[in-house]
Amino acid sequence: MSLDGKVAIVTGSGRGLGLAYARELARRGASVVVNDIDARATADAVAAIEASGGRAVAVTAPVGPTETAKELVSTAVAHFGRLDILVTNAGVLRDTVLWKMTDDDFDTVVDVHLRGTFTCVREAVQHMRQAGGGGRIICIGSPTGQRGTFGQTNYAAAKAGIVGMVRTWALELKRAGITANTVVPVAATAMTATVPYFAAAVRAEADGEPMPAFFRHDLGFGTAADVAGLVAFLASDAAAQVTGQVLGVGGDRLQIWTHPEAALTAYREGGWTYDALREAWPTTFDGAAQSVGERFPELPVRFQPATP
Questions:
Q1: pTM higher than 0.90, yes or no?
Q2: Among 198, 220, 255, 289, which residue has the fewest nearby CB atoms (within 10 Å)?
Q3: Which residue in 70, 142, 174, 291 is the catalytic one?
Q4: Domains within the chain, CATH numbers bracketed
């Protein structure tokens, strides 16, 4: 699987998962525009890619504003002559429960994740459609956007919104030969390092040791490299017919998430009045009510955090 001659933009690629995506795309032959708000991180990312024989250039700017999206696309075209792949990975967290979340907490996360994805994809697609050679849009989602997570109203809204946009883009861009997919990674990152449940896995990753099989297989939790392979596949010609999908990946596990479908359909002549619902809900509907939040298997004793 080669990406020779392709050009990619990866937002939020100064470190972590984004850097893993950028390095894998470059390893497969793509020239890469890396992006971060930290100039040192972008410089180090470019240096790492070039040291491995790849080609890269940096754009140090916050994702969200249209001006950044335009700079990313113009940089790709100016330095490498084209644009074929966009990976929208940039993100921030401002976690707190609903009643304590400020307007700034909400707006900051939505601006970077949701608006940043929108502005970057819009700018990339305008170029791709005009160039006429198709393209690949790969947007990074989260299990939180699929099932919700306590304390992440802003992040859940943004990540769920990304999935909705991607489904729409898959329809709108099909005729132009541009695919759009969402990747839902589950991996050891700075965002998961503070979660006690993942402590043993994160520690193994930091120490350069193999991640325990419980995390890789039972939980589907792995390393950034485990996610990068899927990103590279979706960027390639081999995935030309894959579009509009939400693909979960982590450790040894790959998932195709279902799109929302009705879990139960019932009809009542004359419609569903308050009294009819009150009578029918316990017997007809309650059993089909959907769960919320992620469901983790019980953590084996040997991986449980030590108590003080």
A1: yes
A2: 289
A3: 142
A4: 7-187+223-256 (3.40.50.720)
